[in-house]
Design a protein that fits this description.
- This protein is an alpha+beta fold and 182 residues long.
- The protein has a domain at 2-33 and 55-64 and 92-174: 50s Ribosomal Protein L5, Chain: A, CATH 3.30.1440.10.
- It has four helices and five strands, in the order αβαββαββα.
- The protein has helices at residues 2-21, 48-62, 94-108, 164-174, and strands at 32-40, 67-70, 85-92, 129-133, 153-159.
- The chain has a five-stranded antiparallel β-sheet with strand order 2-3-1-5-4.
- Helix 1 packs across helix 3 (94-108) and helix 1 packs across helix 4.
- It comes from Emiliania huxleyi.
- This is Large ribosomal subunit protein uL5c.
- Belongs to the universal ribosomal protein uL5 family.
Length: 182
């Protein structure tokens, strides 16, 4: 599975982007650097049982053990103390990144009800794409019976592209169902 996406990039996407943007060197062609998956835990961080369930869900979705993000300073208004767990994140690179991207594009996103493509507004101006997932049940790895509470997370796709247009073209060639840019 991961080899297919990686080979697609090397054999079809790189030559296509070189022709489209007039790159003289293969190293100039934009590529995927990493995919970060981040989830804020909120109230679930107080209960170790729910925290473990959240970490397990992220591990199943990403195929890699997440790291726990802890608060850097205390904020009384949010009832957060320094060092308390506030979120979890996973950074995928290389083969796991390509495997996750392929599952996201071909299996997960088509499972969304009334799906018409993802917004092209998620680019940050530097060639990276951010996507918010509202609930974890769109992933086939997650069983409905195991979920205590619907909770979303953020996916950041980091590329080496310099502009949003290059990143849009790169992701579109991977098969990402992006809506047309305005």
């Amino acid at each position: 599975m991961k080899k297919d996406t990686k080979n697609l990039y090397k054999e079809k996407i790189v030559p296509s982007l070189m022709e489209e943007y007039g790159y003289k060197n293969v190293q100039l062609v934009p590529k995927l650097l990493k995919i970060s998956i981040n989830r804020g835990l909120g109230e679930e961080a107080r209960s170790s049982k729910e925290m473990d369930a959240n970490l397990k869900e992220l591990a199943v979705i990403a195929g890699q053990q997440p790291t726990v993000n802890k608060a850097r300073k205390s904020i009384a208004g949010f009832k957060i103390r320094d060092g308390m767990p506030v979120g979890a994140s996973v950074t995928l690179r290389q083969d796991r990144m390509y495997a996750f991207l392929e599952r996201l594009i071909h299996i997960t996103l088509p499972r969304v009800r009334d799906f018409r493509g993802i917004s092209a507004e998620g680019f940050d101006g530097r060639g990276n794409y951010n996507l918010g997932i509202k609930d974890q049940l769109i992933f086939p790895e997650i069983s409905y019976d195991d979920v205590n509470q619907l909770q979303g997370f953020d996916i950041s796709i980091v590329t080496s592209a310099n502009t949003d247009e290059e990143a849009y073209s790169l992701l579109k060639k991977f098969g990402m169902p992006l809506q047309a840019r305005a």
